[in-house]
Amino acid sequence: MxxxxxERTSVGTARKIFLxxxxxxxxxxxxxxxxxxxxxxxxxxxxxxxxxxxxxxxMDGFAVRSADITGASPTNPVMLQVADSIEEGSCVQVSTGxxxxxxxxxxxxxxxxxxxxxxxxxxxxxxxGKNVGETGEDVRKGEIIFNKGHLLRPCDIAVMASLxxxxxxxxxxxxxxxxxxxxxxxxxxxxGLPPAGRTLDINSLMIGLYVTKWGAVPRYxxxxxxxxxxxxxxxxxxxxxxxxxxxxxxxxxxxxxxPDVLASMGKKLVHGVGLSPGKPTALGVIANVxxxxxxxxxxxxxxxxxxxxxxxxxxxxxxxxxxxxxxxARLTGKITSREGYVSYARVILEDDGMSFLARxxxxxxxxxxxSIAKSGGFVIVPENVEGYEEGNEVDVVLxx
Amino acid sequence: MxxxxxERTSVGTARKIFLxxxxxxxxxxxxxxxxxxxxxxxxxxxxxxxxxxxxxxxMDGFAVRSADITGASPTNPVMLQVADSIEEGSCVQVSTGxxxxxxxxxxxxxxxxxxxxxxxxxxxxxxxGKNVGETGEDVRKGEIIFNKGHLLRPCDIAVMASLxxxxxxxxxxxxxxxxxxxxxxxxxxxxGLPPAGRTLDINSLMIGLYVTKWGAVPRYxxxxxxxxxxxxxxxxxxxxxxxxxxxxxxxxxxxxxxPDVLASMGKKLVHGVGLSPGKPTALGVIANVxxxxxxxxxxxxxxxxxxxxxxxxxxxxxxxxxxxxxxxARLTGKITSREGYVSYARVILEDDGMSFLARxxxxxxxxxxxSIAKSGGFVIVPENVEGYEEGNEVDVVLxx
Lengths: 400, 400
Known about the structure:
homodimer, 400 residues, alpha/beta, Molybdenum Cofactor Biosythetic Enzyme, Chain A, Molybdopterin biosynthesis moea protein, domain 2, Molybdopterin biosynthesis moeA protein, domain 3, 4 domains, six-stranded mixed beta sheet, 30% strand, elongated
């Protein structure tokens, strides 16, 4: 009976303890800007030139010396010669964005003129500076345009391109080692139906695809049998990774050696979390490498991965936290939750044309795969809430 | 004066007209599942096997014949022999997920037993079927597991892997041709500061990176001068694309030929939209290929790309619409908008620890690059709203 896992750390505390054990990566790399969408700047970016780098016209019209047309109006028009350069009484036609000649101090809008041969009749006056964008008006040379730590969007890359920047230094992606454990696991590569009692290792692929999405590089281990020495050896092989995710072997069955190995090789920070499903999650550090031991059951593993793996990967990768996509939906049925546990209730999202409905999935166990396939999101029920009633409006976190 | 663009279609109507002209792609391709995150299924997926494909234990414990332990309790325990197979009076130890032998009809929890040598003292009875997952309980062979049109998430790929599926058929990615126009544009590849009056073509890269993000494949054209014939020729070269985005040449300046060419080669659906910035946007169809002509000014082009390019790419690619990421924020200043226009006001998002603040950016013109770099999102002001006051809570759509 002493093998029953009695300890239980709250999700919030467990996450805090785990994240404190994770250092953002120091490694950086130099990359061409076009490949940097989703990457994070490791240095601030200064503007190496003024934008605009010349005085530019803000309108389609004529570059003029404002003094030449003082007092012009529809009833008192002034005639100007359209020319290639500016002298007293002449003007230069410009389109929006064009260079405004040195000698001009304003741009007259096309709409305020009437074209007569190579002359224009000017029907409005302009103030000096009108419709002229000064050099450096948008971005001044030397100005910080992006701060260190900025997550690069396509539009940011366009902004950098406009400054003549071709390469930037970004934080390297964390390496995440993925170690599946279990005597009954079969590699995904094996063809045919696994023998009774044996299941395909789908967690490695699932973890690998998610950490890739979150900006890391997965490194896949072979399946490790439930044997202390072999688990120890497998972990040792991956201590050059930035994060280790071990799948399986964390509940209280006879062969659940992983948390023990974690404790013997390093520091076991947490074992047993107020998370449903996902209670058997263990967290620790070995030789400065954070280790997440998540339950082997896919649905529970997925919840542990979202609750602990995602913030860990983002912190290691220096990626600023991004908001989850949340939609408001009305429950079509009751959601109950275990007191003292943060419960991730899977729901089917339906759009009734006006608003979203969230249909709770009957999830008989943590291993129910079809519930993942069907569910659009999680309703996350906090520890201190008993559940929600049919008809309640709830936040549904979309499963990414 | 007749060149002034008077026509103005509302954003909603313009988008509807444009999307009606777009057919979702029929092309499909066969891919290995591991590469299918973000891809869309073009056929429904049926389960080719039962999950589980054997009767499996839902707990760590002992597979038993329930009749053998009828009436067992702490005060009236029953002894069972732990063996390798089930006969009357014997049981088989099983861990969660393990095969439950044919002869057993229930699994007794480990916690309800005391181990005594190779015997166990059973302190609870179980009903037939207890803690046994029946074959096909999770997914039944032949059942539809994902519908046609489903956008694949990493967890879905894991579910497919568990069914022994290695390849699926997905919709092909739309090809988006990107044609920059303008006499004053300089290719991004050119080194050094462009001459006065000339600007780098950053829109092509910006459009290319965004359409890639939305699931398309960009094809880049060279810069096309503002000449009807050359624009016509450039468009003709890309009529095998699924969508054409032309940047620049849509306002009312003397050299804005693109909408005219659009009308002469096909059908101009819309020219002039109630969108600020982004009014000069034109939409049309040439030889069944939808064409988006967006303003050349990056900030206005970006807004037109979000308002029209994104839904177009998603529809062509059969990608189900995904919700924008929206955060609630309190305005630190007033936002004014033009009546009759949907205004995209750029804001800086600041987190004051408790909530978000949205600081409106002073955007003197549509071409202001730095405003893109600084802004975290848009406050989208509908046509019928005059603007928002300091202190108002607003929805900020994060710029992706």
